Amino acid sequence: MALKYLGESLDIHGGGQDLIFPHHENEITQSEGFTGVVPFVRYWLHNGLLQLGEDKMSKSLGNLITVKQALERYSPDAIRLFILGSHYRSPLTYSEESMRAAEAGMERLRQAAKERADVAGEPALDSEPFRQKFIESMDDDFNTAQAIAVLFDLVREINRAREEGRDIAEAQRTLAELAGVLGLTLEEPAKPPLEAAPLVELLVEVRDELRKAKQWQLADRIRSRLADMGITLEDTPKGTVWKRTLWSSQQDAQHKQ
C-alpha cells in the first residue's frame, strides 16, 4: 500500500521512540533491500512516550487514561494544549495538576481572543513579530512548546494594549489564526448545568464577607476548595465572578450529595 500511494521513498514516517529498534530499523532494511532505493524515509519523527507517573502509559500495564475519559473532565482544547506544550520528541507525564493548568491556560487564550468593540484606540498592537516568531518555532522541528509560548506572549500584549485603550482587533485575529494552526478552537467548552450553583453563589458571598473582615486564610480556603471542584473565582472591581473550568460526572455526583 505504501508503495502504491506514497512511492518507494517516503517524505515523513512517524512513530514512538520505542519503535526505533528493532521495528523501524528492520523496516528500513526490508524496504531498501526490496526496492533498492535509498533512503526509505527522508525524515523520521519519533515521539516521546506518554507517562503516568514514572511508567509509560499503556494498555498492557493497565495504567491507561483514554481520550474519552479525559474529555469527561477537560475540554478538547485543553487536552491539545497539554500535549503540544511539550516538544513531540520529549516524554510527557499526564497528571490532573497539569491538565488543570492546561484548562486555565486555555481560558486565558479564550479571554484574550474575545471581541471587545469598545477598544479601538491608537496605536494598534502590531502582531506581525509574534507571527514570525511562531513560524520560526514551528520550522524548528515542530517546536510546538515554543510556539505556544509565543501565543501567551501575544496574549500578554493584547491584555496590556486593551488596558491602554489601544486597537487589538488585528492582534486578536492573529491569535485566533495561529491557535488554529495548532488545532485550538478557542471556543468555550460546553458544560452540563451545575445543580450546585446556588451553593456556589452562597460560598462566594461568604468569602466576600470574610475578605471584608480580613479573614484572609478562611477566604483563601474557600477559593482553594472551589478550585478543586472546578470552580474558578475572579475578583473584579464589580465583585467576584465565578466560572467552571472543568467538569466530571464524579464531581457532579459529589455536589448532589
Summarize this, please?
The chain is built from eleven helices and seven strands. With 257 residues, the chain is an alpha/beta fold. The strands form three sheets. It has a three-stranded mixed β-sheet with strand order 4-3-5.
Question: Would you kindly provide a written description of the structure presented here, covering whatever features stand out?
Answer:
The chain is 53% helix and 13% strand. The chain is built from eleven helices and seven strands. The strands form three sheets. It has a three-stranded mixed β-sheet. It has a two-stranded parallel sheet with strand order 1-2. Helix 5 (96-113) packs across helix 7 (144-163), helix 7 (144-163) packs antiparallel against helix 8 (169-181) and helix 9 (197-212) packs antiparallel against helix 10. The longest helix is centred in the middle third of the chain and has 20 residues, at 144-163. The model is unreliable at 248-257 (pLDDT under 50).
